[in-house]
Amino acid sequence: MTSRQHPEPALAASQVHKRYGATAALDGADLTVLPGEIHGLVGANGAGKSTLVKALSGAVDPDSGELSLGDWRGRRLNPRQAHELGLATIYQDASLVGSLGLVENVMLGRESGAGMFLHPRRDRAACTAVLEMVGLPTDAGVLAGSLTSAQQQLLEIAKALHREARVIIMDEPTAALGAQESERLFAVVRDLRGRGVAVVFISHRLDDVVAICDRVTVMRDGRDVATFAAGSLDEGALVRAMIGHDLERAAHQSRVAGEPVLQLRGVAQGRRLRDVSFTLHAGEVLGITGLVGSGRSRLARVVFGCESVDGGEMTLLGRPYRPASPRDAIARGVGLAPEDRKRDALLMEQTSAKNITLAKMPVGRGGLVRLGRERTLAGELMRRLRVKPSVPGALPASMSGGNQQKVSIARWIHAGARVLILDEPSQGVDIAAREQIFAVIADLVATGCGVIVISQEVEELQQIADRVLVMRRGQIAGELAATEINEHRVIELAMGASAHHVAQGAWT
Fold first, then answer.
1. DSSP conformation class of 251
2. Secondary structure element (H or E) that encloses residue 420, with its range
3. CA angle 381-384-386, nearest 5°?
4. Pair 458, 486: CB distance under 8 Å
5. Bridge partners of 337?
6. Can you tell me the distance from the alpha carbon of 123 to that of 143, in angstroms, rounded to the nearest whole number?
7. Strand 285-290's sheet: what is its strand order?
8. pLDDT (tens digit, 9 = 90+) per residue, 144-160?
9. Which pLDDT does position 502 carry in this prediction?
10. For residues 131 and 137, is the Cβ–Cβ distance under 8 A?
11. What is the CA radius of gyration of the chain?
């Protein structure tokens, strides 16, 4: 392997400390990443991963310790230094300009020429090689905003390669990707390894970490607690290192479904949704899965009133239901926690109390919001759902992904939703927080709420769903009972492939 030929680290941190008031974000953290190595970095939310990455990329100054990047050694970096020394950081939210082409995004800030005298032909020639390397089109008419999530990740890699990065930090690169998209990204990352580029791969998806990484460092409470080599990697060992003990998962308990709360019959929306029919019962978790573009999230938006339909019927609590808007859906008892929490679910710079009571504000005389009551209600729910911090005045922007998701769900508990749709509820959430969210879902269905969980994670659906609907090309391709949910059957239905083709690897 390339790293054996180059024992000097490409990136390292030694005994790094960083405090914010009384909180030790980093407490003697160590990390060593070798050239030509894919090095995983995992840990529960709040373990110190983000602070360590910010220290390595120059975004924060450590209080003490030593950093090294190539031949450079020191305690403090700034972002410009990090870039000049060959470090690129790719965050989960792509930093692209959607209205510009791929070449323009790659060259942004590094255009050849000066002032008004730029050289677009020279720029294109310089970018073609890196775009082709990651498998992206070089057509000038393709805009960054038209790319899929996976392609945007690849464009960020192209930007890093054009800057001749020797170390690339990737923060949750597969969080929003399906299996096929993740495999494409993995192929590019492996190619980077072959070129001697060091990759730091940060992810809550432990199966991805095991699949792609040469070594993995686990962080807990601001320090590194273990480093595993590829041969000794398994998800159980990673979980034990992350949380300090084995994860105790309750076996799925089959539930007795109640009366129908939501029924769809022949719902259609052009070619996007076709003849969709199903029934959701009170006290049931109904899983919906499928490949990216199968129509699963669009179906959620239709039920929540974000989009209209061309045909078919919907019934909610025994009465005809065709919401004219999300406001109408909320008034009828339907809630949606969408896939993109930061953009579509939460007001990131408003208090948790405001976010939780947004769908049902405690209004007093004169139409004024009762602020004291708002804080009390929010505080009770935050403690019940174990949100950290459980402070009504806390901003979601300062919270981990798991706690943001709990705030999003708390909104619908407060609103008294009878039907709740959760789109990718564990995306970007650490494994401990995921189990807490699953416990909240179990509590909700115990009260008679009907819950729809949209997820591409088969293991997640095995754990919580009573039934699973598999979508393909805007239709329900099949239904699986709890005992039938497995990756093989889901893939078979999602792809429309025979069992033989699935066994031969058609999924990837």
1. P
2. strand 419-423
3. 105
4. yes
5. 422
6. 16
7. 334-337, 419-423, 450-454, 285-290, 467-472, 475-481
8. 888 877 788 888 888 88
9. 40
10. yes
11. 24
